[in-house]
Amino acid sequence: MSSSTPSATRPATSTRPSTCASSQPRHPKKLSSLVGKKNTSASSRPQTTATYSPPVLKWEVIENKIRKNIQRSWRDILKLCQEKDVSKLGEIPVSEFLGIVEKFRLDLSKEEMTQITTKYDIKENGKIAYYDFFQSCILLLKPQKNSVLQRVVIPKPQKPMSPGPQTTSFYSTMLRIQPQILHCWRPMKRTFKSYDESRTGLLNVADFRQVLREYKINLSEEELFNILEYYDKTLSSKISYNDFLRAFVQ
After folding, report:
1. pLDDT at 36 over 90
2. Superfamily grouping for domain 57-138
């Protein structure tokens, strides 16, 4: 009996931890500690996203900087990119792109070049999609956010445009006529409006091409097709001239 009493007391003491572990008073403490850990990890997540938001803003700053520096030489840069693009896929190795940027002295720091190469290495294959680069820095096909105090140069359409495919042929056409458009876009806008008697913001293809010819912008049949493929996706034979001009002027 004396030997059985200690063994009887031992299970009592040994069962207490197991019962305490399964009892409710200590269990909520474990849950609360886990919840606290989740909250701290969740609260730390916005900090990680905040660290990624500045590069997006820097891209806009860098592209605006490039846009000012690249006006005189972008056609030569594009031509050199096309020569380096042996496979004609619209992309060249990052090293080749960096060499071109250095050759034309675009005054970009190493950090800025890292930002650019990270953004335009779209396939993450070590190559720069240079047509996308020129689209962002020269053409303004994506809608820009206007501040409240900024004067609207070209009104936005009531209906948002549903653009067609952005092909390399389309980019080439738009980039070719970009200098001429910038030179005469204000009187061209007035001429577009004079043809648009119903004030719909749309012109048929013949009138649209005629206005361009009046300003000595002659499009080949292929180039006209490239523009129509983008601006007349629904094959309505109508083009929004404001959308067209907005690609060059923002």
Report:
1. no
2. EF-hand (1.10.238.10)
- Residue written as token pair 């909520």: 28
Are residues 209 and 195 in contact, defined by beta-carbon separation less than 8 angstroms?
A: no
Superfamily of domain 168-247: EF-hand (1.10.238.10)
- Tens of pLDDT, residues 128-168: 998 888 877 777 665 444 443 344 455 555 555 566 777 87
How far the first Cα of the chain sits from its last, in Å, is 98
Measured distance CA(117)–CA(168) in Å, rounded = 19
Ramachandran assignment for 143, one of left (phi > 0), alpha (psi -120 to 50 degrees), beta (any other):
beta
**Residue of higher predicted confidence among 166 and 1:** 166
pTM of the model: 0.55
Say if CB 127 and CB 92 are below 8 A apart: yes
Residue the block writes with tokens 């197991």: 18
Residue closest to 243 by CA, chosen among 168, 135, 139: 139
> Which residues sit opposite 93 in a β-bridge?
127
pLDDT digits over 175-187, tens only?
Answer: 889 889 988 999 9
pLDDT of residue 111: 86
Question: Quick one: how many helices (H) and strands (E) in the chain?
Answer: 10, 4
Q: Do domains 57-138 and 168-247 have the same CATH topology?
A: yes
